[in-house]
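Methods, example record. To illustrate the input and output format used throughout this study, we show the complete record for Jacalin-type lectin domain-containing protein. The sequence lines were provided to the predictor; the line carrying C-alpha cells was produced by it.
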Amino acid sequence: MAKKVEIYGGFGEEFDDGVYDSVRKVCVGVYGDRVSSVEFEYGKGDQSIIRSHGQKSQESKEFVLDHARGEYIKSVEVTSHGNGLISSLTFITSVERDREVFGKVEGTKNFLEAKGFDKLVGFRGRSYLDRLNALGAHFAVVLTPPVKKLEAKGGNFGDEWDDGVHDNVRKITIRRSEGSVEMVKFKYVNGTEIVLGDAHGDTSQLPYVKEKFVLSEDEYLTFVHGHYGQKFPVGQSVNLHGRFCDGITMLKFKTNKDTYQVLGAETEGYEYVGTSFVLGETDHKIVGKTMAKKVGIYGGIGEEFDDGVYDSVRKVCVGVDGDRVSSVEFEYGKGDQTITLSHGKKSSQERKEFVLDHDEYIKSVEGTFHHYYFISSLTFITSVERDREVFGKEVGTKFVLKAKGFDKLVGFRGRSSLDRLNALGAHFAVVLTPPVKKLESKGGNNFRNEWDDGIHDNVRKIKVKRYQESVEIVQFKYVNGTEIVLGDAHGFTSQPSMVKEKFVLSEDEYITSVHGHYGQKIPVGQSFNLHARYCNGITMLKFKTNKDTYQVLGAETEGYEYVGTSFVLGETGHKIVGFHGKSSTFSLAQIGVYVSPINNA
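The corresponding predicted structure is encoded as:
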C-alpha cells in the first residue's frame, strides 16, 4: 500500500513508473537552467528496472543509495520555473550525508513527502522532449520495531487504504447510517505538527449521522473493538445481498482514559449476526508507546523540539560558536536502526563529538545558559567513569538534567533558533539492573494511564487518599542516599471529600510486601455491578514492613462482602524500592513494585 504525492511543476506528457521495493539509483541530466532528464533505477526483489524521462544531456550526475545500509529517499526538494520546467532536485535520505543539489535552485520550492509514509518507492510526473516539466512520487510506510502493523479486520471487499505511522491519534470522525459505519477519518499528531488523514468510505453528501471524538494531549488509543456483519430482526434470515451484508456494524475505541463507541447498541427484537474483532496489543498504543519521564526544559525561548523516546543515545555532536552552543546533533538507537536529529546551525569553527560505548548511557547533563537565554555549555555524565569534558564555556546560570529514580537518558527535547541552542530538556527511563526486579502491577481497568516512580534506595512515607470504598490516590516519598525525593500523586485528584491517611517509616524500616484487593464491596446477595463507578477499583491496600503493618480500607462490615480479586506484591528476602502502576479518571487502577534484596541496601 503506497500513497501518491502531488505532482509539482508544469505541463507535459504524463508518466507514472508505479510502485517498487526501493529506489536504487537516480541519474539527473542538467542543461542550462533546467533539469533535462531523469533516469530511475528501481529494485523489485532481485530485479533492477530502469525508467527514463526527458532527453539525456552531456552533464549528467548520479545519486546512488547505499543498499547495504538500507538507505532510502525520504523526501525530494523540487524547484520549478514559472515557465513550467524543473530547475533543481535535492534528495533527502534516511542516512546523514552532505546535501547535493542537481541543477540550480531557482523558482518555486516544493517538497515531495508524505507524513506517516517515510520511504519513496516510485516516481511520477510530466516530461517533454528535452526537459522534465513536473515531478511527483509514491511513498510507503516503513515499519521499524517496536512499531507493528496488525491485520485489518472486516469484510473482504473494497479499496485498500493506509494513513501511515504517526506519533499519536488526536481526533476520530465517523459518519454512519442506521446500521453501518459509512466513513472514518483520523487526525494525527507528529511532534508539534497536525496531520489530517483522508476520509475513507462513502464521502457522498447523504444525510449520515456524524460523530466526533477528540482525544486530549496525554490520551492515546489502546484498542479498537468492532463487529462486521448485519443487525436484523430476530428470526429473519441473513440477507447476503443486503447493502450492509458485510459492513462494520460497531466500532469501539478504547483509550487510556475513556471509551468512544459508534453503533452496536442492543435493540429489542433485533440481533447481530457476523464476527467480532479486537485490534491492539497489551502495553501498546495505536502506533506504540514507551514509558519515560520528562525533565526540563532549561534556558530561553525559541522553536520547540522533542525528539521523542529511543532505546539509547549513541552519540552527541556539539557545535560551539563564540560564547554559545550553536548546534546539537543526537544519534539515537532504536533496535538495529540509527536515527540522527539536529537542532540549531552547524558551526564550521568548532564541532566536537561525544561518543558512548555500547553499554554506556547518559545519566545526567550539566549545563549553563547565558543571561541572553542561550545555552553556553554542556557536560555529559555517563554510567561509566570518564574524564569530565565540557562543550562550550561555563558562563551564566547552571542547570542539571536528571530524574531521580530514572537513570538513563533516552531522548532530548528543547528549543533552538537559527544559529543557537536556546534551551534543553530530556526524557529519562528506568534502568533495571540485577538484582533489582520489576513486579507486574495488579488491579482492574487495564486500559488506563501508566505511571512509574522509578527505583530508589528506600520508601520513607506513604500517603493514601480514599473515597467511600475505593483508593483514589497514592503518593510516595523516597530516600536516595541523604536526598529525599517526592513522587507524583497518582489517581483521581479532583475529589474534595476524600479521607487522607499517612504512614511515615522510620530510618531503619522498609516495606517487604503489599497486599491488596480490587473489585467491589457490596451488600450480601447483591449482584456485582459492572456499571458502578468503582466496579473494579482498589478496595484494600496493606503495606507490610519489617516493623509494622499499615492498612487502608478492607475492614469487614456486617451485611457486606468483598467481590473481586486479592493480590500480593513482593518477594521473600527483598524490600520494595519503588512503585509503578496505572490510574483511571476516577481512581487508582493498578499498583506494582520494584524490589531489591534486603542485604543490597
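Annotations derived from this record:
The two ends are 55 Å apart (CA to CA).
Residues 168-279 form a domain with the Vitelline Membrane Outer Layer Protein I, subunit A fold (CATH 2.100.10.30).
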